[in-house]
Structure formats: C-alpha cells, structure tokens
C-alpha cells in the first residue's frame, strides 16, 4: 500500500536534500520526479468504460536511478481498490503495491516497498489496475515522445483488459500513468503496508478456530511483532507466530472462540529500519446452528473453497431447492466474498420462473453469510422445485465448480438437489432475472431460509413399519407412518450399489398412513439396494428421522441384464454432440446366449442407432439397428441370431450415437462393479486403459475408458438350458498306440454338436514342439480331425483338444492322450 501523505512528504524532502548536496553547478531537475506534475490534467477525466483494465506507460531515464513508485490520475467513477506495478520491457513484474489514502479525484501516488534500481536507457513500464474502469484518457496525446529530463516516454500508453502486463495499444492514447523516479533510493521512512487480513475487517461467519492473520508487503521483525485478539470476555489467550518469509503474522488461540460473537484484533509490526505499522480490525465468528427453525441448508460455519471468483460482470446466481413437506420460505441467504459489492437483492421463484418474492439485503457484513427476510413468508409445497437467487451487480461471487455433480446439499426438510436430479443445479443468468443456465455443477452458495409446521402442529410423524427387509426379497417397498401424510410429500428414493437412482411410482393407502412404491422395471437380481423414504404430515412436519434401510433382491430371473430398466441415469445426457460408440465390458458366469443390446437414451441423443456385440479382441459377433425407439429411456435391439457366449470370457456390448448426447454417469464403476451372476463386469487393472465403460469417437470397436464412467449400455442375456460340457466318445490313434503311421490323422468324436470356432487340436512331437497340421470339423458337428502337413517324425507324440458345445459349455480341462510313431 502507499504511504500516508505525511510520510510521502518526508521522503521527498529527504531525497531533495540529498539531491541538493550532490547537485553540480549546472541546473538539474528537482527529483523525485515524473513525466507530469500535479498541475497536468487529462482532457477526458472519465472514459465511461466500466470493465476492469490495466493501464500503463513505457518510459526510460537518461541516467542510472531508482523507480520509487507509480502515479495515476483519478477521475470520477474510477473507484478502487487500485494496484500499481513496475514491469520490465519483457513483462516481468518487478514491484507492486496497493494505493491507499486516495483522494476523490486527481493524482494518486503509490511508493513501492523498496526502490527498484533502473539502469540508464533501459525501457520499463509502470501501470495501475482500474478494477471498475472509468479511467482517464487523452486519445491523441502522443503525437511525439513526452520528455521531462531525465525521463522520456517514447510513445502511446498501453492497456490490458482484466489486468496483468499491459501490452496492447490504441492509437496515440495517454492513460495518465506516471513513474516516480529519483537518482538515489533515499532513506527508508516507509512502514510496512498491510496487504490484507484474515478474517477481513467486518467479516461475519468467521471460523471459531480463531486463526487470525495480518499480511504485509515487506518483511517484518518477528521479535517485535504482536497480534492480540479481544473477545466479549476480554483478551484471548493464544500464540503469535511469523511466517518464514516474515511477511505474515498469525495469532492462534489456545481454544476455539465462542460462536456468534464479535472480536477485535490489533497487530503492531516494525520493518528492518524500525518503521512501525499498527492496524486494528474486527470480525464476528460463525454462530452455531439453532436447534429449531428458521432453518437453512448450510450453517454459519460452511464456507466456499473459492469465496470470490474473478468474474466482474453483473449476474443473478441461484440454486434449485426442494422441500420434504409444506413449508414457509422466509428469505434468502448467500455467501459474500471479497469484491462482491452491492447492492444485492434476493428472490424466490417458482420452478417455471414466476417471481414469488423479492427484497434487498441490508446491513451486510464485509464477508460471510448475508441474510434477507422477505416482507411476508411464502408457502411452498412438498416435493416441488423452487429457485432461490441473489443478484451480484459487480460479480466476484463465490463459486465451487463440480459441487452439485457430487450430489445434493441437504439439511432437515430442505434439499438443494444434485446435478441431474430433476435438472441441473447451480444456476445463473448474466444481467439478472430468473437464472436458468448452469456450468459444471457449480455451487454459487445461495441458500434458503424456511420453517415447517402449520396450525400450531410441530409434531413430526414417525416410521412404524417398512418392507422389504433382509436378503433374497422381491416385493414393492411399503412404509407405514404414525399419522396421515401429505400425499404430495411422499417420496421414495431407491439407489443401486453405485448410487444410481431408480424410477418408480408412489401410491398411498386410503388412510394416508401407508406409502407403496413400485419400480418402473424389474430390479436387478441378487443386488443390494438402499431405500430412502421422505414424507411430511399435512401440516408440513417432515419425518423426525429419515427412513433409510437396505435389502438384497432375490436371485436373477432371466432373460437378464447388468442394469434394471428402472434405472434413471443422472444426468441423462452428456454435453458432447459428436458421434461416438459407447459400450460396456462384461463377462458371463454360465453358458448362455446374448440376444440383444440395450442403451439408455436421453434428450438430444437422436439419429439412427446401431448396436453390436464384440469379442474381447474386437471381432464383431452381431449387429443390428434399433427400431421403434421412444423419445427417451431404455431402448432395446434384438439380434437376428443370438450369440452363444462362453463363461469367463470378456465381451463388449455397444451402440453408436451418431449425434452424441449419450447418457453418462461419472465414476460409476469406481463406486461399484456389477457382480450379480450370471453377469458381472470385470475388475480393471487400469481405469484409464482397461475400464468397464468404454467409448470410441466415431464408430467401431470401443477401446477407450475414462475414470470408471458408465455410458449406460447393457446386454440382454439368456442362460443355456444345457449346462453339461461335451464328452469324448472315441479317438484315433488310441491312447498308448505304437507303430502309428507317420501320416495318420487324429480323430476325436464327442457326444453332442461342437462349436468349431471354440475348438482346437494340438499335436506335439518328441521334442515338445507343436507339429504342423490342419484342423477341421466334420459336417456331423460331432467330430474334430487333425491332419499333419508332412510325415511325423518317429517317437512319442501328445494330443491336446479344447472344445465347447454349441450351447457354450466349455471342457473344464483339455482332452489329452499320447501315441508313438514308428516303433515302441
């Protein structure tokens, strides 16, 4: 930060005295100096450009000297905070600081923490950041270089939108930025400047851990640094430390600070020259969550990982909210970080965009949770989506990317649904109005203030009975409550082992005490599901404790698949709009046939879809085109000819999405593999190259995988009625035969038709090496024949046969025997 005007005057006087002592007989300029003096003013005080921009000027000096700081001319509307910098010509930042004690308009001066030596004739650049624009400018100023001995500005000023090294130019514009230069560095009369504090002055919702830090722009003396915290009961006991670079002083209390109370912090430090800096500020700790309502999803101690984004644009930020029972929405909350200046307004919207209530936030703290209470409460219905939002006219809002992709945020009867549960969450709209856009499941830290209970009834219903429970069960879910429940509030959420939700329908008994849920499709067999039941009584009181339990379904009834058709992927559609082949790797545990392929279709997944079954090495075993598709949901293709599959072998079921927009559940298979015989998904050695969910841009055999993603492709499998492998009935030569002709053929017959594609005959000679020969299957399908390519050498030979019947039953071990060619 810059010096106070008194310290600045003292430094300039000291430098002038040094200059006078060293002055030669000829006239010299009076320095510290710049290219303009305080009487020079811009022609255009306010450019009326509201965007953040870094503005600068290139310059050099005729002699060796020091850059002491930077100056700029401030017009109306050019509000701060402003930072100033010195740069080398190639864009290296050599010094920086924050302007302080600014006047309303006119020249502002920042002194760097330490003077920077600048050689004669070497170009440098000084700049300042105008975070709100409205900078001063003369568009046609630099028709020739600006000269003020010993300084020269050779040409037009520079700028960079947003901030950073200004390397762009527009005509001959002068943005009224100047350097403060001197021939000598002068004495160090500048105290350390405060860069920032944690918590900031006036903050609310500060952690009760009580860690307090003050950061400075130069090293301070750790032996003389003090930082004291005073609470409602007086001084707080704790320890003070200084960081390794000696720029930060931290106070850590011996025990947590009391919640919801105001504290005062005072820091005193000295730099190496003994210059003293003292600063006092206050903050309020996060209040504990109240035992009753009004309630909110997050308590005061919840805080974003990114409390202030760099985006300065005006924007409306919001979140979808859903309630377990009828409730009254009392207001809106949001988390405020640095730079998120107001005025702020908060709103409640119906899911279709109708504005239900709005108001202006008042008495805001500098940072932390801010609360708006509406003039009148708004009654909201159970299991219905609403949107709470607030306007950030100057941006710099809190934003944690990916938050809602990990699931919902919930407390009590209020839920901020996860991304894909009824739509996206984390909503915004630039400029203002009903927010409908979303980005990467970001959480903008908007919350609702609500309460349940009408007509004086505050007693919550309880869960008396639930079913099914235990293992090997297969029945609808039923729950019975202690009192009638609001039909609109009755919700059942069933999830598979990886957390995917299943669709179903809810019905209530005549007395409104029993809720029954039936899935939209058969549940997957031998699978452990988790049920979560939510309901509220007619006065809006939700269950005192959520009704959650798990059960395991009975053994599969086939035809069967990897997933239940009641499964509803979240989100149902990916953002990709290019053609891809999507698939799943699976292994049967028993002989059978794959009769077709299924995939889940979401919005935008249009076009003609083809489905295929592949061997592990990429041979296409069957394919076809999906017909009679519905607009969304599971689609099925039945192959013209079923494909026999062998237990233990890996296959890939896939489909082509010509226009992209396929269903996607990130990291699904990392959360849980499918292991419900007769089908399972293999455990990969590497999720990136050997995953379960696979894909390929374009079309063809999908071989790529990413982080265990599930693309919701499935195979339809029917087990074989025949589970007995083939049995050898005859063979020639016989086992142990001797004096066998060198050109003899090896013949093996079995008791049932064989699958020639899964059969092999190998003959090894006396040296253990395979003997070259041809393998064929006779038309009867029962017999395998091997013919040598040339006469076999004399000696001991061994036959090994592997085969499977047409039902996929594989010999558990090879059939082997031996014979001798040309003698005993």
Automatic annotation (TrEMBL):
Which N-terminal stretch is annotated as signal sequence? Answer: 1-22
Q: Which InterPro entries match?
A: Cu-Rt/internalin_Ig-like, DUF4082, Ig_E-set, SbsA_Ig
Pfam families from the xrefs? Big_5, DUF4082
| Claim: Signal is one of the keywords in the record | yes
> Which of UniProt's keywords are assigned here?
Signal
Q: Where is this region: Disordered?
A: 199-221, 241-262, 593-615
Using the record's annotation, list all stretches that form the SbsA Ig-like domain: 190-285, 457-553, 722-820
> Is Signal among the key words of this record?
yes
Question: Polar residues: which segments have biased composition?
Answer: 203-212
This protein is called what? Ig-like domain-containing protein
What organism does this protein naturally occur in? Actinosynnema mirum (strain ATCC 29888 / DSM 43827 / JCM 3225 / NBRC 14064 / NCIMB 13271 / NRRL B-12336 / IMRU 3971 / 101)
């Amino acid at each position: 930060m810059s010096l106070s005007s008194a310290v600045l005057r003292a430094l300039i006087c000291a430098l002038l005295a040094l200059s006078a002592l060293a002055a030669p007989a000829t006239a010299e300029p009076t320095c510290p100096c710049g290219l303009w003096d305080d009487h020079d003013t811009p022609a255009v005080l306010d450019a009326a450009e509201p965007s953040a921009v870094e503005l600068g000027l290139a310059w050099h000096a005729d002699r060796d000297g020091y850059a002491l700081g930077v100056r700029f001319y401030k017009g109306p509307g050019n509000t701060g905070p402003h930072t100033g910098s010195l740069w080398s010509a190639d864009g290296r930042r050599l010094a920086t600081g924050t302007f302080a004690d600014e006047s309303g308009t006119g020249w502002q001066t920042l002194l760097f923490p330490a003077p920077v030596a600048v050689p004669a004739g070497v170009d440098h650049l000084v700049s300042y950041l105008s975070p709100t624009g409205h900078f001063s400018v003369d568009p046609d100023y630099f028709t020739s270089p600006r000269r003020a001995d010993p300084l020269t500005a050779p040409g037009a000023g520079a700028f960079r939108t947003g901030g950073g090294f200004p390397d762009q130019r527009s005509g001959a514009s002068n943005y009224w930025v100047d350097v403060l230069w001197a021939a000598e560095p002068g004495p160090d009369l500048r105290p350390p400047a405060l860069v920032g504090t944690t918590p900031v002055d006036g903050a609310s919702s500060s952690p009760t851990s009580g860690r307090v830090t003050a950061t400075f722009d130069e090293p301070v003396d750790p032996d003389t640094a003090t930082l004291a915290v005073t609470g409602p009961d007086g001084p707080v006991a704790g320890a003070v430390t200084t960081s390794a670079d000696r720029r930060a002083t931290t106070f850590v209390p011996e025990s947590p600070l009391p919640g919801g109370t105001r504290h005062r912090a005072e820091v005193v430090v000295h730099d190496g020259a003994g210059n003293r800096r003292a600063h006092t500020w206050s903050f309020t700790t996060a209040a504990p969550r109240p035992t009753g309502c009004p309630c909110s999803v997050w308590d005061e101690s919840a805080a974003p990982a990114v409390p202030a984004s760099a985006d300065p644009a005006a924007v409306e930020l919001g979140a979808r909210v859903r309630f377990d029972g009828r409730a009254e929405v009392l207001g809106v909350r949001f988390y405020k970080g640095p730079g998120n200046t107001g005025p702020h307004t908060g709103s409640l919207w119906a899911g279709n965009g109708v504005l239900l209530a709005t108001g202006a936030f008042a008495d805001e703290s500098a940072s932390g949770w801010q609360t708006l209470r509406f003039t009148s409460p708004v009654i909201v219905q159970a299991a219905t989506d609403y949107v709470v939002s607030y306007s950030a006219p100057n941006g710099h809002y809190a934003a944690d990317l990916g938050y809602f992709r990990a699931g919902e945020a919930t407390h009590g009867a209020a839920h901020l649904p996860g991304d894909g549960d009824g739509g996206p969450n984390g909503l915004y709209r630039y400029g203002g109005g009903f927010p409908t856009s979303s980005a990467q499941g970001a959480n903008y830290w908007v919350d609702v203030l609500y309460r349940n209970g009408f007509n004086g009834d505050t007693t919550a219903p309880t869960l008396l009975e639930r079913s099914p429970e235990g293992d090997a069960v297969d029945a609808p879910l039923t729950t019975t409550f202690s009192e009638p429940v609001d039909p609109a509030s009755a919700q059942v959420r069933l999830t598979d082992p990886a957390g995917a939700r299943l669709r179903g329908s809810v019905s209530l008994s005549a007395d409104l005490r029993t809720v029954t849920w039936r899935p939209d499709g058969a549940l997957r067999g031998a699978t452990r599901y988790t049920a979560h039941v939510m309901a509220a009584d007619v006065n809006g009181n939700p269950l005192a404790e959520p009704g959650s339990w798990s059960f395991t379904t009975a053994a599969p009834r086939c035809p069967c698949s990897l997933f239940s058709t009641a499964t509803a992927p979240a989100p149902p559609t990916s953002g990709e709009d290019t053609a891809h082949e999507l698939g799943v790797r699976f292994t049967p545990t028993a002989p059978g046939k794959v009769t077709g392929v299924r995939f889940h279709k979401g919005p935008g997944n249009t076009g003609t879809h083809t489905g295929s079954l592949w061997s592990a090495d990429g041979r296409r075993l069957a394919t076809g085109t999906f017909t009679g598709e519905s607009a969304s949901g599971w689609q099925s293709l039945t192959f013209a000819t079923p494909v026999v599959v062998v237990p233990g072998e890996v296959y890939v079921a896939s489909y082509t999405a010509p226009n992209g927009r396929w269903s996607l559940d990130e990291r699904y298979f990392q959360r849980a593999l499918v292991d419900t015989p007769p089908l399972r998904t293999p455990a990969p050695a590497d999720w990136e190259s050997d995953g379960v969910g696979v894909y390929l841009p374009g079309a063809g055999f999908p071989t790529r995988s990413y982080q265990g993603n599930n693309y919701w492709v499935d195979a339809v499998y029917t087990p074989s009625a025949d589970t007995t492998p083939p049995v050898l009935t005859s063979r020639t030569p016989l086992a142990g035969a001797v004096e066998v002709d060198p050109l003899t053929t090896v013949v093996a017959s079995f008791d049932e038709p064989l699958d020639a594609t899964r059969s092999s005959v190998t003959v090894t000679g006396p040296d253990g090496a395979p003997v070259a020969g041809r393998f064929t299957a006779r038309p009867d399908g029962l017999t395998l024949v091997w013919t040598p390519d040339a006469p076999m050498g004399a000696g001991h030979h061994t036959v090994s046969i592997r085969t499977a019947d047409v039902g996929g039953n594989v010999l558990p071990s090879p059939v082997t025997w031996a014979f001798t060619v040309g003698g005993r």
